[in-house]
Design goal:
Elements (H helix, E strand, L loop, with lengths): L1 E5 L2 E3 L5 E8 L7 E7 L6 E7 L4 E4 L7 E6 L4 E6 L8 E8 L12 E2 L3 E5 L1
Parallel strand pairs: 2-11
Antiparallel strand pairs: 1-3, 3-8, 4-5, 4-9, 5-6, 7-8, 9-10, 9-11
């Protein structure tokens, strides 16, 4: 399983970014995938995840109403649309995947991408 994130960058507060995560060696149609982040000196946190079985979506309070997860099964790509970005959203953003539904519990995910940096000023 390989996960490759892209789309990070620098943006002013109030702006938007869309992150992408391309998965290979994996069937997105039956797995749990999501987005996580880690700011310097802070613990990694779950932001929003999607479990295909039952269509469950989990989202953290910190990003509710601002971040949206979506996926394109044909392209094996997971997206994170981030709106109304704040300086406190500055972090390394990671895509992760697992066979089972772990919600936002990042420690349970087995497969991780290398991350993409998001800086909000």
């Amino acid at each position: 399983v390989q996960l490759v994130e892209s789309g990070g960058g620098s943006v002013q507060a109030g702006g938007s970014l869309t992150l992408s995560c391309v998965a290979s060696g994996w069937s997105m149609k039956t797995q749990c995938m999501g987005w996580f982040r880690q700011a310097p000196g802070k613990e990694r946190e779950g932001l929003v995840t999607m479990y295909t079985w039952g269509g469950r979506t989990y989202i953290a309070d910190a990003v509710k109403g601002r971040f949206t997860i979506s996926k394109d099964n044909d392209k094996n790509t997971l997206y994170l649309q981030m709106n109304r970005l704040k300086p406190e959203d500055t972090a390394m953003y990671y895509c992760a995947a697992d066979e089972y539904n772990h919600g936002l519990a990042w420690r349970q995910y087995q497969h991780w991408g290398q991350g993409t940096q998001v800086t909000v000023s």
